[in-house]
Amino acid sequence: MAAPTVRSGNGTPGTPRVLRAMNDRAALDLLVAHGPLTRTRISALTGLSKPTASQLLGRLTETGLVRTRSKERGRPGPDALLYEIDPTVGRVAALSADLRGVSAVVADIAGTVVGRARVAAEPTAGEPRDRTARLVGEAVDRALREAGSEQHRPHTTVVGTPGAIDPHSGELRYAPHLPGRHSRTLHTELSEALGGPVAIENDVNLAALAERHTGAARGHDDFVLLWVDEGIGAAVFVDGVLLRGATGGAGELGYMPLPGAPLARGGPGAYAGADAGGGFQSLVSVPAVRRLAGGAPPAEALADPRVRAETGRRLADGIAVLAAVLDPPLVVLSGAVPRAGGEELRALVERELTGLALPRPLLRLSEPADDPVLAGALLSALARARDDVFDTG
Length: 393
Description:
Number of strands: 15
Strand order of the largest sheet: 6-5-4-7-10
Radius of gyration: 24 Å
Structural class: alpha/beta
Mean pLDDT: 85
Shape: globular
Largest sheet: 5 strands, mixed
Number of helices: 12
Distance between the termini: 22 Å
């Protein structure tokens, strides 16, 4: 199959260098997706001729991005030589910061996790402004030590946290639990602590990224992930693109006014409490469900038919607003409350939606994951690092 003609923005044909870079990236992505492949298989998957595939693989081997492995058994000859991504060309770090501490993983560029760590951090009075950066740095250092690569700093780091970076001011908003959250130098502090570039991303957005990659939203370009946990949030994908909003706060549903809940007044600073001062969060968050059950934990609380029915009704009220405004084809229920309520709660919400709104999206439960925020942060970090490391142009 002939390679397609590439044209630049002014309409001129793509240069051989651009075409080579495109073919290189296509081959590298195949090796990431499939693991070790023979030259013949890469030729078949890319549509390139075997001589062109050989030249490509030779080029990538010389640059150090690809290495060879032993031949397949029973397959003599040069075609049986296996090619794979050299995992040593880069490391990435992914972190999930929450009210109780920071979790971190370190992975090689192929996506294999080589180190993990958890740093607990109970809230204390008078926390220094740089505490977040120090916690993140300690978590990454521990994960690197487990990986045996303390001397190799991560090429890219993604930190998932409640809140959102304002694209205009650079300030982390909607995250009063993080010391230094209002500092416009937080990015710089994190980069200095880790010795490399850092991206800060909303935790629910990252959970939705993981859901779209391997979970209940696989194959969907348009969906909403509703996160119902200690806090409430949503991630909205439209045509495969994450909707962020003018200040990065799209999906901060904890503030959403609903019947039966006091209004959440006072802005982001009032969002520090478990009930957010009112709004949707005061109706369906973990503290709200516990309150309905006299303090019982979510799994025990939602085993009570009365608590489950009331929680389902409240969730349906909020989803009806989402459906009326966004009309998504799919809503994925994620977080501690849907996990504890399971299929019985999902079915209750589905029934309660009848008559509340004309659009009735498909409702699915999030597929199990140890930490979807951390999984999404790792996906994001790998994508960012590969865009840089795999660029042979």
